[in-house]
Specification:
It is a single chain. The strands form 4 sheets. The protein has a 5-stranded parallel beta sheet, sandwiched between helices. A 5-stranded antiparallel beta sheet has the order 10-9-8-12-11. A 3-stranded antiparallel beta sheet has the order 13-14-15. By secondary structure, it is an alpha/beta fold. The chain folds into 2 domains: 129 residues, Response regulator (Rossmann fold, 3-Layer(aba) Sandwich); 105 residues, OB fold (Dihydrolipoamide Acetyltransferase, E2P) (Beta Barrel), CATH 2.40.50. It is built from 8 helices and 15 strands.
């Protein structure tokens, strides 16, 4: 055990929709010197939003959750430049094959056996230490924007959409928005095209925020966003928008 404890702690995010399950994992990992808890999330969507800010190296991930399942989240993680490792923690044994397909480090059944969890995390630490050094992403990961007399950090992954307003870009983050002094062309070149898509000469949308596409009676197309809002799709960008249906 001393050999494991001497290793650099692995940054760990807990993901489970049951508060008692999160609490149980917090208690079990509190005594493990090789675990550094960086946060928790009640569902997969929340976990995805936290990744840029928390930079977890490991997720202890439930599978059966409302909305996106743990398996679906693991598939999305595989597309990241430096995805966290995954240990599934679930009450069901029927997903073991699917867990293998997404290269999970381990698969633990609830109620969690502390010794079994320790073995799984030791395996994750070993896998983490064998990974090649992460290459810096060529895409912008965060923005620092002025807001009421201060400069605040906005993670790129938190941005729902970006709209041009003359010489500024309005970054929409949930119900709030922030102005950034740049052009939409310059900003588009800095954003990860796997995460963001330009739909109009003045609009860039995060792909995950697009719920569907709709054709109007006049022939124009709209993107329907997760919150029910719509945004027009310019003719120049229509082919790229239609391609979303095959991704």
């Amino acid at each position: 055990m001393a050999e494991v404890d001497a290793m650099r702690p692995i940054r760990t995010l807990l993901v489970d929709d049951e508060p008692l399950a999160i609490e149980r994992l917090q208690i079990l990992t509190a005594t493990m010197a090789h675990v550094q808890l960086v946060g928790s999330a009640p569902d997969a969507a929340s976990a995805l939003r936290q990744i840029d800010a928390l930079k977890p190296e490991l997720m202890l991930l439930d599978i059966a959750m409302p909305g996106m399942s743990g398996i679906e989240l693991a598939r999305k993680l595989a597309g990241l430049s430096c995805p966290p490792l995954v240990i599934f923690v679930t009450a069901f044994d029927a997903f073991a094959v699917a867990a293998f397909d997404v290269a999970a480090v381990d698969y633990l059944l609830k109620p969690i056996d502390p010794a079994r969890l320790c073995v799984a995390i030791k395996r994750a630490v070993g896998a983490r230490d064998q990974l090649p050094a992460a290459q810096p992403s060529p895409w912008v990961q965060e923005f620092w924007v002025p807001n009421r007399g201060e400069i605040i950090r906005i993670a790129a992954g938190d941005i729902d959409r970006i709209e041009a307003e003359r010489d500024y870009m309005r970054l929409q983050v949930g119900a709030r928005s922030y102005l950034l002094h740049t052009t939409i062309a310059a900003l588009e070149q800095r954003l990860d095209p796997a995460r963001f898509i330009r739909l109009h000469r003045s609009t860039i949308i995060q792909r995950d925020r697009i719920a569907g596409l709709r054709r109007e009676p006049g022939g124009n197309w709209l993107a329907v966003l997760a919150g029910g809002q719509t945004t027009p799709i310019g003719r120049t960008y229509l082919d790229a928008a239609r391609a979303l249906r095959s991704t």
